[in-house]
Amino acid sequence: MTDQGYRAPQVCKLVGITYRQLDYWARTGLLTPSIQSATGSGSQRRYSFGDIVQLKVVKRLLDAGMSLKKIRQAMDILRTELESEQPLADVTLLSDGASIYAAHSATEVVDVFRGGQGVFGIAVGPVQEELQGDIHELFTDEADETAVTSEVVGT
């Protein structure tokens, strides 16, 4: 990388998109280059590393089945909520193909399209470990109760 940023052909190769996609996204305001916008015929857009990160996130969301319309809406919402011009670089995004969720921290995940409605996730591994401990304790307690009952009945 140079101080002048990345040119469109480099960005396309890094992100895995066509020049037509990149051009369309810039012209329609999905993501405009932060270093230099096109100023007419023959001028080149220059993208920053942060721009490329966001473009790659857009590409991954598209690959996950999200529509460009929903991605555009999510970016607008996140731009406002996070007061950031790089909303896709400032959060961790999750998607089920129908919605986009923004993880602001390990304990806060919100549905972007539902006005920040909180959602929660359950890590199954710790639940399994807890259950195994509970089962072990249950059978240990039952074995202890059986032993005490046998002693009381036997005397």
Task: Describe the secondary-structure layout.
Blueprint: E1 6-7, H1 8-15, H2 19-27, E2 46-47, H3 49-63, H4 68-82, E3 92-95, E4 100-103, E5 109-111, E6 117-119, H5 124-154
Antiparallel strand pairs: 1-2, 3-4, 4-5, 5-6
| CATH fold node name of the largest domain | Multidrug-efflux Transporter Regulator, Chain: A, Domain 2
Proportion in β-strands: 5-15%
List segments where confidence is low: pLDDT < 50 over at least 5 consecutive residues: none
Shape: rod-shaped
N→C terminal distance: 86 Å
The CATH architecture of the largest domain: Orthogonal Bundle
Write a structural description.
It is a single chain. By secondary structure, this protein is of the alpha+beta class. It has two domains: 116 residues, Multidrug-efflux Transporter Regulator, Chain: A, Domain 2 (Orthogonal Bundle), CATH 1.10.1660; 34 residues. The protein contains five helices and six strands; from the N terminus they run E-H-H-E-H-H-E-E-E-E-H. The strands form two sheets. It has a four-stranded antiparallel sheet, covered by helices on one side. A two-stranded antiparallel sheet has the order 1-2. The model has no long low-confidence stretch (mean pLDDT 79).
